[in-house]
Structures are given as structure tokens and as C-alpha cells.
UniProtKB/TrEMBL annotation:
Catalyzes the reversible oxidative deamination of glutamate to alpha-ketoglutarate and ammonia. Homohexamer. This is Glutamate dehydrogenase. GO terms for molecular function: glutamate dehydrogenase (NADP+) activity; nucleotide binding. CDD domains: NAD_bind_2_Glu_DH. GO terms for cellular component: cytosol. Substrate binds at residues 78, 99, 102, 153, 371. Residues 190-437 form the Glutamate/phenylalanine/leucine/valine/L-tryptophan dehydrogenase C-terminal domain. SMART domains: ELFV_dehydrog.
Length: 439
């Protein structure tokens, strides 16, 4: 990692997985004989491309585009597209690596992939977003397909962007097919896909609590983020009797002790794309703290008293000091809606304290699982009801929990869902690779 600091997030993710796989390698030597580690950390294919688009002033802009097709041992590549200025080859590679194990854990036939661009959607007009999406797809279309690689949304990519991407794919290929997920309902989307990651993270937390004889009802929850995952985490927490008291965006955080007002949050973030600070206009009793006022090196979302925490914004948003603050404030459960939101030092603290800790690849797998349900509906040309998809999502989250929990037990580390999720996810992919020969 030291010789290649530009891939720091990727090395962080690899290290975490390999460390928890060591008990498996001790027990089952054939993985090492098959050189599986070297094979599985190398993406099958990485595509980097120029995205040239014209803004409203007529200026030609250039961004970097990426698609990493990481592993297709158990199914077509599947994973989101992220549009954010922080996107780099390392970020996409780490996300694709994690995605491979997450997708395996869902029990569904989907391989791992991820993509995106350093394009910043903030402040862009609708026309500029369309222009960018069309330019992005003008290269991507030749690499994807419903049985090859099926991208979805992620940070900065929602229903609107998926629409522009799909329209351009159709124009270039002439094919109406399930090549993207996260589509809007009238033209091929699945009910519950919008809600799936947030709902799934809460279902996962519910499984952890129920398994310990506890429940969500009455619990105070800290949630970070104010996007797709955070909003539907908050919605499901309310439905199951808990009270979410925080949310955040890249500019600051809201602490509303009596409970975040979900309608206001949706209005601000889904309809207006407004900063969270505007929440105070209708809820003057809430507290807003801009990032500039956070204690140095801290994310203030994690400093409020809470029973449960749902990091749902981005990678490395919860460090060791944040973890210690959560523990000191009585937090008993962390379920990661985001990908790799906790630093390795923070994870160490959670494992040491033996609280319920669910890594993103287990807790946030509901999003990709529901994407696979969208693929299944597209392929069969049938649309399922909201309740049917929701029930399947619930069952998938329960199965992921059980699989990670039982695998942790099998390796004599009861309750260690990091180890359980990594080994369970890895084993299925590695076994498929071995079955398929020297691939
Ligand atoms: P959105 O773009 O809808 O929302 C992201 C939220 O996080 C926004 O509130 C954004 O604030 C905030 N945020 C993003 N980057 C930063 C940053 N660097 N610092 C502080 N805040 C930041 O994305 P999603 O909700 O879809 O994704 C959130 C996380 O969940 C990501 O880690 C993603 O990979 C993961 N995930 C998403 C899935 C999905 O189905 N959508 C599936 C599985 C995982 P602002 O708007 O101000 O930038």
C-alpha cells in the first residue's frame, strides 16, 4: 500500500477482508494452493474513459469515467455508478471489490462491479446533467448488457440520471432491456428499489436486535447522510417505532432531539436539492452545525446520545474518536448503510466493545439485492407488487444476517459479523472460481 498511496481506499478494503479470511485459509488450505488471493484482488477488467460534454454556456468540459468489472464468477457484473468530485480509480476499485462479496452474500447470482465519474452534479442544470449522462453512456454502452454488466445508482446517481443513461443506451443500441437498475416505475423499475438500501439496513438491525432478545421500538438513532440511503433508513426506523434524531450532508448536520421530520427532509433533498441548513426554517427547535464548527477531526453526528447508529453518507466518515464517543454515549448497535463508513480503527473499537456491528457489505446489501429483483422482473416481463418485493427484501436481509452469524460461530468468533460476512461472501465466489478453472 505504501508504494501506491493513490490506491489507499482499495488497500484498506482488501486488508480488512484478508485479515478476517485468515482463519478460513488456516482451515482450508486449498484456497492458497489455488492462488485464490492473488486472483480475487485483481479486477477482471478496468475501463477508464474520457467523458466530453457541453455545458449551458456552450463550453466543452472533460471528466474521467470509470467502470471496474471486478468479478463475474457467480453472475453478471452488478454495482452502482457514483458521480462525485472525489471519485478516483482507487474509490471505484474499492467499491467494486466490496461489491463482489456483498453480492455473493445476498445469495443471488450477481457478480461485482462499480463505476462512476469525478463529475460534480451540484449546481448543474437539468440539461447539463442530461448532456453529461448521454456522454458517459456513449462510451459505457459498449461494455454493458443485461447478462454482461448491469449498473445502478449510487452517490449522485438517482432516478433522473438512470433515466438519461437508459435513454441514451436505447438510442445507441436500439434495445429495450434490463441493462440498468434503479429505473423509474413506469418504464421498467421495481417497486421498493428506491427504499431498499435504507429499509434493508433497518431490517438487518432488527435481525441483530431480535437475535439478542431486543427490538427497535423506542430506540434513539443517529443517522448520517441525507440522501437515498439516509432518507429511507429514517422512514423505516419510524415505521418500526424508533426515533432518528440526526441527519447530515457535506455541509453540516442537524440534531433534532424530538425526531427528524421526514417530510421536511424529503422536501429539501428529493425535491429542492437544498442544503440541510434550510431545515431550521420550519424547525427552529432543531440544532444545525456546519462542518466548519465540528471539533477537529470529528463528525458531530456521532457525538449525540443514541442507542443505535446508521452511518449512511460515505466512506471513512466515522473514525476512532467518533467510535469512542458513540460507545461512551451508550450506543449498542452500528449498522452501516454506506460503504466502508467506519475506519479500521473505529471497527476495532466496535469489535472490542462487543456491540452489535454490521459492516456495509452485509447491512446495505438490500439495495443491490432489490436491483437483482428488478433484473428478474425485467427478464420475465412481469412487475411484482410493493408487498411482494418488500417481503423478498426482508427475507434476503434475514438470510444475510443468518449466514454471517452462523459463519462467525463456525469460526469460533460468535457475533463477529465482519468475519462472518467476509468468509461467507468470499467462500461462494472463490468456490465458483475454482470450479471454473484458471480464471
Ligand atoms: P446520495 O447521493 O443519495 O446521498 C449521499 C449523502 O451523503 C448526501 O447527503 C451527501 O451530502 C452525503 N455525502 C456524500 N459525500 C460526502 C462527503 N464526502 N462528506 C460528507 N457527506 C457526504 O447517495 P446514497 O444515499 O445513494 O449513498 C450513500 C452511501 O450508501 C454511499 O456510501 C453508497 O455507496 C452507499 N450505498 C448506496 C446504495 C444505494 O442503493 N443507493 C446501495 C449500497 C450502498 P451532499 O448532498 O451535501 O453531498
Amino acid at each position: 500500500a505504501k508504494s501506491s498511496p493513490s490506491q489507499s481506499e482499495f488497500y484498506q478494503a482488501v486488508l480488512e477482508v484478508l485479515e478476517s479470511l485468515s482463519p478460513l485459509f488456516e482451515k482450508e488450505k486449498h484456497y492458497l494452493d489455488q492462488n485464490i488471493i492473488e486472483r480475487i484482488v485483481e479486477p477482471e477488467r478496468q475501463i477508464m474513459f474520457r467523458v466530453t460534454w457541453v455545458d449551458d454556456k456552450g463550453k466543452i468540459n472533460v471528466n474521467k469515467g470509470y467502470r471496474v468489472e471486478f468479478n463475474s464468477a457467480i453472475g453478471p457484473y452488478k454495482g452502482g455508478l457514483r458521480f462525485h468530485p472525489s471519485v478516483s480509480a482507487s474509490i471505484i476499485k474499492f467499491l467494486g471489490f466490496e461489491q463482489t462479496f456483498k453480492n455473493s452474500l445476498t445469495g443471488l447470482a450477481i457478480g461485482g462491479g462499480k463505476g462512476g465519474s469525478d463529475f460534480d452534479p451540484k449546481g448543474k442544470s437539468d440539461n447539463e446533467i442530461m448532456s453529461f449522462c448521454q456522454a458517459f453512456m456513449s462510451e459505457l454502452y459498449r461494455h454493458i448488457g443485461p447478462t454482461i454488466d448491469v449498473p445502478a445508482g449510487d452517490i449522485g446517481v438517482g432516478g433522473r440520471e438512470i433515466g438519461y443513461l437508459f435513454g441514451q443506451y436505447k438510442r445507441l443500441t436500439g434495445r429495450y432491456e434490463g441493462v440498468l437498475t434503479g429505473k423509474r416505475i413506469p418504464w421498467g423499475g421495481s417497486l421498493v428499489r428506491t427504499e431498499a438500501t435504507g429499509y434493508g439496513a433497518v431490517y438487518f438491525a432488527q435481525n441483530m436486535l431480535q437475535n439478542a432478545g431486543d427490538h427497535l421500538d423506542g430506540k434513539i438513532c443517529a443517522v448520517s447522510g441525507a440522501g437515498n440511503v439516509a432518507i429511507y433508513t429514517i422512514e423505516k426506523l419510524y415505521q418500526l417505532g424508533a426515533t432518528p434524531v440526526t441527519c447530515s450532508d457535506s455541509r453540516g448536520m442537524i440534531y433534532h432531539k424530538s425526531g427528524i421530520n421526514l417530510e421536511t427532509l424529503k422536501q429539501l433533498k428529493e425535491k429542492q436539492q437544498a442544503p440541510l441548513q434550510n431545515y431550521l426554517q420550519t424547525h427552529p427547535d432543531a440544532v444545525y452545525k456546519p462542518v466548519a464548527d465540528y471539533a477537529p477531526g470529528r463528525n458531530e453526528v456521532w457525538s449525540v446520545p443514541c442507542d443505535l447508529a446508521f452511518p449512511s453518507a460515505t466512506q471513512n466518515e466515522l473514525n476512532q474518536a467518533d467510535a469512542l464517543a458513540l460507545l461512551a454515549n451508550g450506543c449498542k448497535l452500528v449498522a452501516e448503510g454506506a460503504n466502508m463508513p467506519s475506519t479500521p480503527e473505529a471497527v476495532e473499537e466496535f469489535l472490542k466493545a462487543r456491540i452489535h456491528y454490521a459492516p456495509g457489505k452485509a447491512a446495505n446489501a438490500g439495495g443491490v439485492a432489490t436491483s437483482q429483483l428488478e433484473m428478474a422482473q425485467n427478464a420475465s416481463m412481469i412487475q411484482w407488487s410493493f408487498d411482494e418485493v418488500d417481503l423478498r427484501l426482508k427475507n434476503i436481509m434475514k438470510n444475510i444476517f443468518t449466514s454471517a452469524w452462523e459463519t462467525a460461530d463456525e469460526f469460533n468468533q460468535p457475533g463477529n459479523l465482519v468475519l462472518g460476512a467476509n468468509i461467507a461472501g468470499f467462500r461462494k465466489v472463490a468456490d465458483a472460481m475454482i470450479d471454473q478453472g484458471a480464471v
